[in-house]
Amino acid sequence: MDRFHEMAVFVAVAETGGFAKAAMRLRGSPPGVTRAIASLEQRLGVELLTRTTRRVRLTEAGRLFLERARHLLSDIESAEKEVIGEGSMPTGHLTISASVTMGRSILPPIVTRFLGENPRVTASVLLLDRVTNLVDEGIDLALRVGVLPDSTLIARQVGDVRRILVASPGYLAKRGVPKSASDLKLHAIIAFTGLMPNREWAYVGGKGTSRVTLQPRFEINDAVAAISAAEAGEGITVALSYMVAKQIQEGCLSPVLLPLCPPSVPVQLVYPESHLVAPKVRAFVDYATPKLRAAFQELKFGGRRASPKV
Asked: Which single residue of 17, 64, 155, 185 could bond 268 by disulfide (Cβ 3.0 to 4.6 Å)?
């Protein structure tokens, strides 16, 4: 028999002064109460109650055990209430990861407003240009680009982006607009290594995806720096569409070979699969999904504005 149940039965008998009254309080039966008290006394090896035909009294051991039992049952009740509160209200620390550029430009206003509406939640945003292992690294959610190979993650799509080539209108006026992938070999290439591994550009050709190897004039592992160099007229660079939407809309950059650029890939908010998703995670996913979708929609070439709307 469960020891906490036995303890609760004992407290009920002590407080009501009888087995029948305790059974009524507990919505049980008098024989069930009798069995619980007998099991408890047998397990403890002491007599807790003395019974007469008219009343039930506590022994010395019973009085000592009653005080401890009340405290213990009260602690259990408090713990259950805290868990129930945890289940109904987001609380705790939330850790979110994203790539450096995406996290810097899109996440902060959404996260800070979420915290404003959920005062019992704190958050860390980790901006990393690598794929993180959410479980091993203690990360609750991640904003990721591309199709997910890991089926153990739950994904909520919030947008889509393309890898595109861009250059300044001044550069293209001076050097000419490339008409084919092979024409890129005649141009100054600014390679952002995160999107141009092995100095190759992948494009859509007549027989599917093809690749052309280029010799960059300038190579760097920071997307913002590569885009800035392109804006300054230093050459053609590759970027994700959301990174350069504002510059394209303002006429600072122009797409190059857009029909050859690979199709869009999804941007997804992902978190580990679990039978019980933490309330803080569920609350953030529900809150951030429509705002991220609006932000990525605004960052399309035809969007009304280039800044995220939150």
From this structure: 155
